[in-house]
Specification:
The complex is a heterodimer of chains A (761) and B (190). With 761 residues, chain A is mostly beta strands. Chain A is 8% helix and 40% strand. The longest helix of chain B has 23 residues, at 26-48. Classes of the chains: A mainly beta (761), B mainly alpha (190).
């Protein structure tokens, strides 16, 4: 009898998932942890902390003398390099306000860095950056959570000034010689661009978290009485104000239906004000007369005005009712709306007035190009990584700030041109004069430029700014030379194939797919057409145990050229050898941590050298055997790999073993380990987010699935050749012809043709 | 509903203990463990659902915290930092048991609308049980975000800070986790 399902209410969820306070840790766990702690050495403190501790311990006169010496050295350095730096005076175009202009189109004139990005300038601030910089005359103005408002000269790579104005969320706007920003002190501050001095300050009765919109001699800003940051705060109110830039006086102000923490958009005589209660209000900028209201779900992102249309992204906190509305600027009447099939929220889009194309990014990483006339879809690109802020378009390229970094997309096709990983979650990028400037929640400010421009331009020398470094050695661009969407050949659900539980994929040399069905301790063998060829269940001594106590399952198979194969019989803690007729030849392994012992062997590979490599859970120990089961050696990969690896290894033609590891604060990367257990190189650091499975290609290249939706192709040297985005890429095996069998969390198995495998490694 | 502790070090003596532990004082660290282990264990148990896994995750997390403690810059953030390590350890533990790809029917599923509005205590317990069964079928990320939000009543912004992802990502994960849970509910009830 089928039980009637309960409605999945919040109350039921809370009740079901909470554990009572009476639940306590086992009595012996404290002792066990304490014992382990006493055996575990601590990491050394960062060098700067140790230096600071030593400096603080010095007598005050000595500290003063050291400070004076450092200052003199700094001044000398500035004098020595100043002339050379000043020669670099190529003009830079501007991005004077959030999203490039007061209409907030997200389109800026002039080129951006393109797909091949590199760091021109990078510095780490002492607070998160949660706003977008303004760039004028080659100077970037940016605030940070630490309250300081800073100016950076992008040509000379120096910080010009950094007064503490208690800024945080507001993105600045430039008006002539002033740069204007809202503060957490409930006021609006204008700063002299040359000196960093406060020119004037206008008190507000709320927080101006958005970016001021400046048109002629007028400034428009909206406020919230509470620091809501886009979440409705009960009782919070909002206002919109028009301020005369000459007199600094409020010309008019009007109450809003709710607090406003996003930016106002202005075009001509109409300004559109978003609110956190999901109502956008249009005003006549001269008379303050309300023209219309338009309701969007929950709260409204920064409006975008293009021609006669306004685009309003209705953000939905639950992420299932997000809608992008296009309304008539004059009347507020809806013209069309776009809703993602999965209901995902779309952030404020780009609208290119010249081409009439809307580029919208959803928070789940889908980027879509729509015709502004009617909303018809032109292309969709699935990035497979979350997007949390508005993108920017410059010179035919879209720059999307994702959780992983900056993704450069060809505007015409949606193809990914390049990815530049950042060390934190970025806010909306500003682009001007070939530079892309973006801040991260990690407090880093990056100025990226085209790799070729960086290579051909003179580098500034000397330590002219203590917080700035010209190049970060740990960051590098991952330039994709070829990116083509995966072509789906077929898709079958595991249930269609008779598999009810967890499963695992193995590619056989004949092109067939061996799907481990751990629940039934068998393999379902599928042909290239997606049809089930046969099922095979070893019996007797060869019977397998592939289901772990918690219900998960394995079933990795390593094939030999002669048709024989090895299976990692994980719950029997052994490796079983079969010949081409599937007769069991032998097995080896017992429970334990010594040679020929396993805890839960889960990855198995036969290398080009004919040796068998077995990865054991949970220590990531790799044992190497002859095919007879004779133990040869153990590879551990060093402390940074041990206990942090993913499922399997790939063995290169020269015997190099590739293992993906990371997490727990360590960067994800692929480590290449030589046969003597030395680390040869690290691959993909900064690019990889959470690799799941590695696979070797037909020509010795290396494939890595990355998160649920990405597949990367690396040359053995570590160079990134190509990168694909698509559904269900958590596990992948590569066919001899280069196609890929894949699957993901949806339980669907797909055969993808990698139509363009890019540059041959 | 389980209340969760503050995400900053709660007292001056705690801050002193963190400072001492940073310099290698294992006894100070053990005192920090004493005050936090039960809460960490509850969170790990809620995510992992088995006592052995929760135990492993806590052991790994506290040892990792000890090892990395000298690199913690702001002692006032110790609790938030420790929570992040525990959550990451739970996710890592689930991820290590990979190949856990479970078959979920892809056809659209809708929940019945004629569910009675009143129910007996036994029915309520049965409902909780079926939700927990379905919960066991979710991925590590889905489990984590549901436990933090619904099991521990943490607001989205705090979860975003803990997981170091944008609030929008947390909201998206909550949505997709709830959707996956609905599908898993259907499966376990069949």
């Amino acid at each position: 009898m089928t039980r009637k399902l309960p409605p999945l209410t919040r109350e039921l969820l809370n009740r079901s998932l909470a554990l009572p306070e009476s639940t306590v840790a086992p009595a012996d766990l404290r002792g066990s942890i304490a014992a382990a702690v006493r055996l575990t050495p601590q990491q050394p403190a960062p060098l700067e902390s140790r230096i600071m501790a030593k400096v603080v311990a010095l007598p005050r006169p000595v500290r003063l003398a050291m400070t004076a010496l450092l200052l003199m050295s700094l001044l000398a350095g500035i004098a020595a390099v100043g002339a050379q730096l000043l020669r670099r005076s190529e003009p830079l175009s501007d991005s004077s306000t959030f999203r490039g202009n007061a209409a907030r189109t997200g389109v800026v004139t002039g080129p951006g860095p393109g797909g091949a990005m590199t760091i021109d300038f990078q510095t780490t601030l002492s607070g998160q950056i949660v706003s977008s910089p303004a760039i004028v005359d080659g100077v970037a103005y940016v605030g940070a959570i630490d309250g300081r408002f800073r100016a950076f000269d992008l040509r000379r790579h120096v910080e010009l000034w950094s007064p503490d104005l208690n800024v945080a969320w507001s993105s600045p706007s430039v008006a002539g010689e002033l740069v204007i920003v809202g503060t957490e002190d409930r006021d609006l501050v204008a700063v002299d661009r040359g000196t960093g001095d406060v020119a004037w300050r206008i008190p507000l009765d709320g927080y101006a978290a958005g970016s001021p919109a400046i048109v002629g001699e007028r400034l428009y800003v909206s406020t919230s009485s509470a620091q809501s940051r886009g979440r409705p705060v009960p009782g919070a109110t909002g206002k919109v104000l028009a301020i005369d830039l000459e007199t600094h006086e409020v010309v008019w102000q009007e109450d809003l239906p709710g607090p406003s923490t996003r930016s106002i958009a202005v075009q001509g005589s109409i300004l559109v004000v978003p609110t956190d209660v999901g109502i956008a209000v249009a005003f006549d900028s001269a008379t303050a007369r309300e023209l219309w209201r338009f309701a969007t779900p929950v709260f409204t992102d920064t409006p975008v005005i293009a021609g006669e249309r306004v685009l309003l992204a209705g953000l939905d906190l639950e992420g299932n009712r997000g809608v992008l509305y296009v309304v008539d600027l004059e009347s507020g009447r809806e013209i069309w709306r776009h809703r993602r099939a999965n209901g995902q929220t779309v952030v404020a889009p780009i609208v290119d007035p010249e081409t009439g194309i809307v580029y919208a990014a959803a928070v789940d990483g889908d980027v879509v190009a729509l015709r502004a006339d009617d909303g018809a879809e032109i292309w969709t690109r699935r990035l497979g990584v979350q997007v949390g802020s508005s993108p920017t378009k410059a010179g035919g390229v879209l720059y999307v700030a994702s959780v992983g970094g900056i993704e450069a997309l060809e505007a015409a096709t949606g193809d990914v041109l390049g990815i530049f990983p950042l060390d934190g979650i970025p806010f909306s990028p500003a682009v001007a004069g070939g530079h892309l400037v973006v801040g991260t929640q990690g407090g880093s400010l990056y100025a990226l430029t085209a790799a070729e421009a960086r290579a051909s331009s003179p580098s500034p020398t000397g330590g002219v700014a203590s917080t700035a470094t010209a190049e970060s050695p740990s960051s590098s661009a991952h330039i994709i030379t070829s990116t083509v969407a995966l072509v789906e050949v077929w898709a079958r659900t595991a249930r269609d194939l008779g598999i009810e539980g967890p499963f695992f994929l193995n590619g056989a040399p004949d092109g067939r797919l061996w799907i481990a069905d751990p629940t039934r301790a068998r393999f379902v063998i599928v042909g290239r057409d997606g049809g089930v060829v046969e099922t095979w269940q070893p019996t007797g001594d060869a019977a397998l145990a592939l289901v772990q106590p918690d219900g998960d399952g394995w079933g990795a198979v390593a094939f030999l050229p002669d048709g024989g194969f090895f299976i990692a019989d994980s719950e029997h803690q052994r490796v079983v050898h079969f010949d081409a007729d599937r007769e069991m030849i032998g097995s080896w392994g017992t429970f334990g941590s010594g040679p020929r012992q396993f805890v839960s062997p889960f990855g198995i590979t036969v290398g080009p050298d004919g040796l068998v490599y077995v990865v054991d859970d949970p220590t990531c120990r790799i044992q190497v055997f002859e095919q007879s089961g004779n133990y040869l050696r153990t590879l551990a990969g060093g402390a940074d790999v041990r206990d942090r690896c993913t499922n399997n290894v790939v063995v290169g033609p020269d015997g190099t073993v590739y293992l993906a590891s990371g997490g727990r604060g360590a960067p994800w990367r692929i480590t290449a380990i030589a046969p003597d257990d030395t680390i040869v190189r690290q691959i993909g650091e900064g690019l990889l987010r959470e690799p799941v499975l590695l696979a070797s290609g037909p020509n010795g290249e290396l494939y890595a699935t990355d998160g649920p939706d990405r597949l990367h192709l690396f040359a053995p040297t570590g160079d990134l050749i190509s990168s694909w985005s698509g559904r269900g890429l958590e596990l992948a095996v590569i066919e001899p012809n280069g196609d890929a069998y894949t699957t993901g969390g949806d339980g669907v198995i797909r055969l993808y043709s990698l139509a363009d495998r890019g540059r041959a490694p | 509903m389980t209340a969760h502790a503050s995400t900053s070090v709660g007292s001056a003596s705690d801050a002193s203990l963190v400072e001492l532990a940073r310099t290698g004082d294992a006894q100070a660290f053990e005192r920090l463990i004493d005050a936090r282990l039960d809460r960490a264990y509850r969170m790990a148990l809620a995510i992992l659902r088995t006592e052995w896994d929760a135990r492993d995750a806590c052991q790994e997390a506290f040892v990792a915290a000890w090892r990395e403690l000298p690199r913690l810059r702001d002692v006032a953030r110790f609790d938030a930092w420790l929570d992040r390590i525990v959550v990451n350890e739970c996710r890592m533990l689930l991820r290590r048991r990979k190949a856990r790809v479970r078959e979920i029917p892809i056809e659209a599923l809708s929940l019945p609308t004629d569910h009675p509005t009143s129910q007996s205590p036994l029915d309520a317990l049965a409902d909780e049980d079926i939700v927990r069964q379905a919960f066991g079928r979710l991925s590590g990320d889905q489990r984590t975000v549901l436990v933090l939000h619904h099991g521990e009543s943490r607001p989205v912004a705090e979860i975003a800070n803990l997981l170091r992802v944008p609030s929008g990502t947390v909201m998206w994960r909550l949505f997709s986790a709830r959707r996956a849970l609905e599908k898993a509910l259907r499966e376990v009830s069949e």
